[in-house]
Amino acid sequence: MADDPIDPLAGARYALEGRVITMDADGTDLARARVYVDGGVIAAVTPPDAPRPDGFADAPVVRVGGIIYPGLIELHNHLSYDILPLWQVPATFTNRDQWSGRDDYRVAVTGPMSILGRTSGYIEAIVRYVEAKCLIGGTTTSQGITLSSNAGILKRYRGIVRNVEETGDADLPDAATHVADVGTGDAAGFLAQLEQASSLLLHLSEGVDATAHRRFEALRIKPRQWAITPALAGIHCAGLKTPDFQRLASNGAAMVWSPFSNVLLYKKTANVAAARRAGVTIALGSDWSPSGSKNLLGELKVASIWNETLPAEVRFTPRELVETVTVNPARILKWDKAIGTIEVGKRADFLVLDNTDGDPYERLIAARETAVSLVVINGVPRYGTTALMTQFSTDNEAVTVGSSARAVFLTQPTGDPVVGALSLGEAHDRLVDGLHRLPELARALEAGQLPKGMPHGGEQWVLALEQNEPARIAGGAKDLKKLPPLSEVLTPLELDPIAVANDDAFLDRVAGQRNVGDALKKDLAAFYA
To answer: Which of 38, 113, 116, 189 has the fewest CB atoms within 10 Å, i.e. the most exposed one?
Structure first.
């Protein structure tokens, strides 16, 4: 099954009619057009009064009343953690070793996830909830979720939102990921990995001090040879200097920028001006909800605000910012012949916003989740307004975003049986329950027991949590055996609301962050006012 496409190219013929922002090389903006879809692929893009393509005589035409964009592509998100609320970052750090070993980080992030991620009944709820979170923000592709079984099997979750690491599709070659830093002396081995990958997403120089910069220096094999190729996409790159970005660019490597997470933890982000001057291709990633944005729509806003602080000659235009979540990540993945733009022959991945007014690129950057009226993946409408979704399926689940009624379509015959037919509502309720009962669930795991009422027996799957590395502190490795059991330190937590529109406390949490400057707080609040 792992060798089969997660989303086979099959499905009904139909057309969407609206304003179409193709994101093609010519910047084509079609004030009114029809996008014809057949079997998950774009069959034609025509004026609305043009003759219908062959085979579409009886196909329904759905008038969306808004702007149709390519679906958003995210190259950095630790989805497994996206049920957790925003962490009140307790200090200004200079590299990730300083916060990843703290006791309060264990209580707020790694501890809760190690409990729910190993407790039967919650794994599938986490997967269902975080995928819906992506859809509500217009994301059609993201980094995947890793599952591990009691039989020693490791696999990527096969779900509704396309994951970059395992697609089963020859046109969408699998990306490799590397969360841990490349160790000193390991550059030659890492180069061998790069040479086997079409793309490899590496956490690179996460932090702003000399320690973070040494993570980049670890890619040096010898004075003029580096483990840097066109396959490499460095995530964060916050510790890189101008010559480093020039080296990335000269070797064809790219960068994935997560400005909100960087600012929350380090009070600053990557030298994007230097990256722009060097010509590095840049994509955007929201990182995760404990120290980042809820979705790409939120991260676009932070990037837009930070963009205004850059020298005028290197600022992104609104179109270029939208490229960081569409065509640029497609190019980085080597998927640009299949997705990233609205063109004939490409996959039918779409995000639709609810009206056609104004500059379309500024409109997407400023859009709130309540403006998303339709999300389509591989030709299958997965999320949108009730009025639009009922034109495609009656097997939808109702969901409320802010005060707006929405519907989500979760049926997937080729999906992962780990999640099965679990509804979003049931996933939400299980997670609320589990986060409120963290100490109790921790005691059950510590005693080797399964919580009553949860399914068990047979093959057991757990989340393989890439950020739950052995705790580290600035002074050296912490002896994990000396840490108190989680049942003694965990406290009940609230489930992170599925959208900013559902989170009355979001701006208050941001306002309380010590490392976020007043200007960023004010401008971000203005986007959501």
So the answer is: 189
Quick one: DSSP state of residue 228? -
| Residue with tokens 């490799």, as numbered in its chain | 176
User: What's residue 361's pLDDT?
Assistant: 98
% helix / strand / coil in the chain, to the nearest 5? 35, 20, 45
Strand pairing of 14-21 and 61-70? Answer: parallel
Structure tokens belonging to residue 256: 């994935």
Domain membership of residue 111 (yes or no) is no
392 domain residue, yes or no: yes
Percent of the chain with pLDDT over 70: 92
Which residues neighbour 45 within 8 Å (Cβ) at sequence distance 6 or greater? 20, 22, 30, 33, 34, 35, 36, 342, 343, 344
Provide the pLDDT for residue 459.
Answer: 64
Helix (H, G, I), strand (E, B) or coil at 232: strand
First-to-last CA distance in the chain?
47
Evaluate whether residue 327 is within a structural domain. no
pLDDT digits (tens, 9 = 90+) for 97-149: 999 889 999 999 999 999 999 998 999 999 999 999 999 999 999 998 888 87
SS3 412: coil
Helix (H, G, I), strand (E, B) or coil at 156: strand
Average pLDDT (385-393) is: 96
> Residue 43's domain is classified under what CATH number?
2.30.40.10
Interior angle at CA 288, CA 400 and CA 89, nearest 5: 110
How many structural domains comprise the chain? 1
Alpha-carbon span 424 to 502, nearest angstrom: 15
Residue 165 in contact with residue 156, Cβ under 8 Å? yes
316/318 Cα distance (integer angstroms): 6
> Domain range spanning residue 401?
14-71+338-408
**Residue 417: inside a domain, yes or no?**
no
Chain segment 320-377, per-residue pLDDT in tens: 999 999 999 999 999 999 999 999 999 999 999 999 999 999 999 999 999 999 999 9
What are the backbone angles phi and psi of residue 59, rounded to the nearest 5°? Answer: -70, 140
